Protein backbone atom coordinates (compact mmCIF):
# COMPACT_ATOMS: atom_id res chain seq x y z
CA UNK A 1 0.00 0.00 0.00
CA UNK A 2 2.81 2.42 0.92
CA UNK A 3 4.64 1.56 -2.30
CA UNK A 4 1.48 2.34 -4.26
CA UNK A 5 1.13 5.77 -2.59
CA UNK A 6 4.78 6.54 -3.30
CA UNK A 7 4.45 5.59 -6.98
CA UNK A 8 1.37 7.81 -7.32
CA UNK A 9 3.21 10.68 -5.63
CA UNK A 10 6.08 10.36 -8.10
CA UNK A 11 3.72 10.76 -11.06
CA UNK A 12 1.98 13.88 -9.77
CA UNK A 13 3.40 17.35 -9.71
CA UNK A 14 2.50 20.71 -8.26
CA UNK A 15 2.76 24.07 -9.95
CA UNK A 16 2.47 27.55 -8.51
CA UNK A 17 0.83 29.84 -11.07
CA UNK A 18 1.89 33.12 -9.52
CA UNK A 19 4.99 34.64 -7.98
CA UNK A 20 5.16 34.19 -4.25
CA UNK A 21 8.38 36.18 -3.98
CA UNK A 22 8.85 37.63 -0.50
CA UNK A 23 5.64 36.00 0.78
CA UNK A 24 5.53 34.28 4.16
CA UNK A 25 3.60 31.02 4.07
CA UNK A 26 2.49 28.18 6.29
CA UNK A 27 1.74 24.76 4.77
CA UNK A 28 -1.45 23.05 6.01
CA UNK A 29 -2.26 19.45 5.06
CA UNK A 30 -5.14 17.23 6.11
CA UNK A 31 -3.16 14.01 6.58
CA UNK A 32 0.43 12.83 6.29
CA UNK A 33 0.89 9.27 5.05
CA UNK A 34 4.35 9.30 3.46
CA UNK A 35 5.24 13.00 3.71
CA UNK A 36 5.84 13.21 -0.04
CA UNK A 37 3.09 15.71 -0.86
CA UNK A 38 4.03 17.81 2.17
CA UNK A 39 7.61 18.01 0.96
CA UNK A 40 6.49 18.77 -2.59
CA UNK A 41 4.31 21.63 -1.34
CA UNK A 42 7.29 23.11 0.49
CA UNK A 43 9.49 22.78 -2.61
CA UNK A 44 6.90 24.45 -4.86
CA UNK A 45 6.44 27.36 -2.49
CA UNK A 46 10.18 27.88 -2.10
CA UNK A 47 10.79 27.70 -5.86
CA UNK A 48 8.12 30.38 -6.25
CA UNK A 49 10.05 32.64 -3.90
CA UNK A 50 8.00 32.14 -0.74
CA UNK A 51 9.47 31.72 2.72
CA UNK A 52 7.96 28.64 4.36
CA UNK A 53 8.02 29.21 8.11
CA UNK A 54 6.37 25.98 9.21
CA UNK A 55 3.83 23.36 8.29
CA UNK A 56 1.10 21.52 10.12
CA UNK A 57 -0.97 18.41 9.42
CA UNK A 58 -4.26 17.58 11.08
CA UNK A 59 -3.54 13.85 11.16
CA UNK A 60 -0.43 11.69 10.94
CA UNK A 61 -1.26 8.29 9.44
CA UNK A 62 2.25 7.04 10.20
CA UNK A 63 1.36 6.77 13.90
CA UNK A 64 -1.25 4.54 15.54
CA UNK A 65 -1.36 6.78 18.61
CA UNK A 66 -4.61 8.65 19.22
CA UNK A 67 -4.11 12.14 20.57
From TrEMBL:
Taking the record's annotation, the residue ranges forming a coiled coil are none
Q: Which Gene3D superfamilies match?
A: 3.40.50.2020
Q: Name one GO molecular function term.
A: glycosyltransferase activity
InterPro entries in the record: PRTase-like (IPR029057), PRTase_dom (IPR000836)
Query: Is DNA repair found in the keyword set?
Result: no
- Keyword set for this entry? Glycosyltransferase, Transferase
Q: What is this protein called?
A: Purine/pyrimidine phosphoribosyltransferase
